[in-house]
């Protein structure tokens, strides 16, 4: 498949494609891997300071399931969450994998990185020589990685782990490593965003990124653009309380400020998303989430912001 076709596959509004994007992607990956000298994408995954929601979201990949992603697309070399090996055996695997696949593996970082007190607040391993912090681990792996992907908003921008008062000095990977980071933000990430990004890296290299380092494939337009309640917004017809069918901008919906394709990508086996479930978007893919969205369910301060967002959305649609 040509790159342009792959992009159209990821961005298509067809329910058959987007409700089962991973199912559509894996046959394409299979054709690619059948070519001479092609192999699965090597991945080293480090989980740092977060709630573990992103690997749980990834495990919820459906139709096909997670095991098929592992078997048919990525070669997960190390993961302090998924792997069975522990202790020195796990660290030996990590060291060997980073050397064997130098400049080829994708370093996936999940969670923000505590930097206060030299990263003391997140230790991923204890050795005879002392503790290995997440900060130390990702800095050591940075030079050997072909690409670095931050999965989730904590890894991308700091997210809830770096929210006020941020006692651990947690920061997004982009603020810790001195290289380009591919940010697949979300709290948690939609598994299709992650699988689609990895597939692009495998077959075509780095995807086009927006100003925040996120793949335009999935973050190129606001939630507001394709929201099913958009027509209410355009008529200034706003909900007065949760449960009303009108636009929830009046209830603090962050859709006009939030880049993501949630309205048609959907969640929970691709059947629902917040606005469809009668709750406002809280902007979980944004770089200022959650501090920039709180207090939740509170009307945005000025109507002029609404008008500004309407202009911004109109520009993107032209």
Automatic annotation (TrEMBL):
- List the residue ranges of the region (Disordered): 295-318
One protein family per Pfam: Oxidored_q6
Instruction: Cite the NADH:ubiquinone oxidoreductase-like 20kDa subunit domain residue spans from the record.
Output: 55-201
> Can you tell me which residues the record assigns to a coiled coil?
none
GO biological process terms, alphabetically, are: anaerobic respiration
Q: Which UniProt keywords apply?
A: 3Fe-4S, 4Fe-4S, Iron, Iron-sulfur, Metal-binding, Oxidoreductase, Signal
Keyword Metal-binding set for record: yes
InterPro entries xrefs:
Cytochrome-c3_hydrogenase_C (IPR027394), NADH_UbQ_OxRdtase-like_20kDa (IPR006137), NiFe-Hase_small_C_sf (IPR037148), NiFe_Hase_small_N_sf (IPR037024), NiFe_hydrogenase_ssu (IPR001821)
Which residues are [4Fe-4S] cluster 1-binding? 154, 187
Q: According to the UniProt entry, which residue ranges have a biased composition of type Basic and acidic residues? A: 302-318
Q: What class of enzyme is it?
A: oxidoreductase
Its needed co-factors are: [3Fe-4S] cluster; [4Fe-4S] cluster
**What are its GO cellular component terms?**
[Ni-Fe] hydrogenase complex; cell envelope; ferredoxin hydrogenase complex; membrane
Record text on subunit structure and interactions: Heterodimer of a large and a small subunit.
Similarity annotation: Belongs to the [NiFe]/[NiFeSe] hydrogenase small subunit family.
Protein name, per record: Periplasmic (NiFeSe) hydrogenase small subunit
Organism, per UniProt? Pelotomaculum propionicicum
